[in-house]
Amino acid sequence: MSQNKDLYSSPYYKEPGPPLDKESPFESMMERFRFAAKILELDEGMFQYLSNPVKSVTVSIPIIMDNGNIRVFEGYRVIHDNVLGPSKGGLRYTPNVTIEEVKALAAWMTWKCAVVNVPFGGAKGAVRCNPKELSLRELEQITRRYTAEMIEVIGPDRDIPAPDMNTNEQIMAWIMDTYSMHSRRTDNAVVTGKPIILGGSKGRKEATGRGVVTVTLEALNKLGIMANKCRVVIQGFGNVGSVTARLLYERGARIVGISDVTGGYYHPDGIDIDQALLHVQESGGTLYGFQGAEKITNEELLELDCDVLIPAALQDQINKLNARNIKARAIIEGANGPITANADTILDDMGILIIPDILANAGGVTVSYFEWVQDRHGYFWTEDRVNRRLNRMMRDAFQLLYEVKEKHSITLRQAAYVYAIQKVSDTLRIRGIYA
Ligand code: NAD
Predict the structure, then answer these.
(1) How far apart are the C-alpha atoms of 363 and 366, rounded to whole Å?
(2) I need a labelling partner for 121 at 20 to 30 A (CA). Which of 186, 301, 373, 416 fits?
(3) Among all residues, which ones are annotated catalytic?
(4) Ligand 1-lining residues (CB < 6 angstroms)
C-alpha cells in the first residue's frame, strides 16, 4: 500500500493525458510557430535554431524501492533556449512521458516567457514514473537523485525548474535542498513554486488566475463591455478556474456557468461564487452536489450564451466539432492548448477575440520570476506588491501584443508568436553564435 496516497489522491493529481495526435497542442504550437516565422521572413538558419533545443539530457535514476529491490527510472531535462536568460520550466512526473513531449513543452515555455517579458529562456523536465504507485520515501529518493544527476544542468543562473503535473511544493523543497547540499550553501533560487517558508513568493498560488483576470478585463475593454455587465462561463474550478471565478465575481461580473470534472453548473442570473467555493471546500474538492445552479454537461457549458468563455481545465476542449456552436464574444485560454488549431480558424472567421494561452496563463511564470528575483535579493515583497507588479506586466504584455496584432492585421495568438520569435531571434543575432 502506498504511503503516498494523500498527495496523489488529491484533486491535483492528474492522470496522463491522451497520446499526441494531429490536433495535439504541441502540433498546434508548431503550426503557429511556422506561421509566425513566415510573417517575420525568418531565414532558414534561424528557423532551424529555434526549432531545436540547445540541450536535451536523459538520465537514469536508480532507486532502492521499499521492498529492497533496485528500480531504474528515466529522467529528462530539455533546455529549448537560453538566449534571453536562464531557462525556466516545470518538472512533471508522469508514467508515459516522452522526450519528444518534453522538447515541445520546453519550446512552449520559450515563447511564454518572451511574451510577458520575463528574462528567461524555456525548458521542461520530466521523470517517467507513476507517483500514485510510489511511497513518499521513494518519491523523495527519485527527486533527490534526479537533482544530483542534473546538477550541472540546473542552477539559479542556468535553469530553474518549477512544479508541473504531479509535482508540488514539497518536491521543489527536496530539489532546493539537494542542490544546496551540493553547492554547500543555501541556493533557494534554483527552483520556484517553493513553500513560502523556503523563499517562495506570496501571491504565487493565485498568480495564474489573477493574470487571467487582468487580460480578461483588457479584452472586455477592447470589446466595449463593462466588467459588471459581463456574463462569464468558466470551464474548470481548480487552481486557475476558481481564482478566476472569484476575482471576476468580486468585480461584479455575472458568472453564469462553472464546471469541473463532475459536470457543468448553470444559472442565467449568475452563480454565487462564494457559495460554490464553500461547497468545494466542504465536499472534498469538487462541485458535485452543488445546489446553486442547474446541472448541465461540460459540452453544453462551452456552448452557453455569454460574453466571455474561459476554458481553464484541459487541452483540446474547443475543436472543429464544437467550435461553430460557441457563442462567446471572447475566449480567454486559462488552460494550456484548450483550442485546437483547426478550431482557431473557425473561431477567427466567427469574429471571436481569443486571448492565447501563452499570454493569458503567463501570470504563473511571471510570479515565478518574482520569486527568483526575491530569492536572489534575499528580500521578500508583500502580496500587494506582487499583485500590483503582476497586473502591470500582464497589462503591458496585452497592450504590446495588441499593437503587433493591429500592425500586421493578424490574430492576437499570431501576434504573440510573432512578438516572441522576433524578440528571441533579435537577441540571438546581437549575441551572435559562439564557435
Ligand atoms: P487543477 O488540477 O487545479 O484544476 C483542474 C480543474 O479542471 C478541476 O476543477 C477539475 O475538476 C477540472 N476538470 C478536469 N477534467 C475536466 C473535464 N473533463 N471537464 C471539465 N473540467 C475538468 O489545475 P489548474 O492548475 O487549475 O490548471 C488548469 C489548466 O491551466 C491546465 O491546462 C494547466 O496546464 C493550466 N495552467 C495552470 C497554471 C497554474 O499555475 N496552475 C499555469 C499555467 C497553465
Answers:
(1) 5
(2) 186
(3) 124
(4) 11-12, 208, 235-241, 259-261, 298, 312-314, 334-336, 361, 364
Domain residue spans of the chain:
53-185, 205-355
Cα–Cα distance measured from residue 176 to residue 372, given in angstroms and rounded to the nearest whole number: 12
What is the model's pLDDT at position 120? 98
- Which of ligand 1's atoms lies nearest the C-alpha of 241? 26
C-alpha dihedral, 380 to 383 to 389 to 391, nearest 10°? 160
pLDDT given at position 341:
87
Instruction: Please report the pLDDT score of residue 164 as a whole number.
Output: 94
321 CA to centre of ligand 1 in angstroms: 22
| pTM of model > 0.90 | yes
Output the residue whose Cα is nearest ligand 1's atom 21. Answer: 260
| CA of 364, closest atom in ligand 1 | 40
CA distance 344 to 347: 5
- Amino acid at the residue 71: R
User: Which residues of the chain are modeled with pLDDT < 50?
Assistant: 1-22
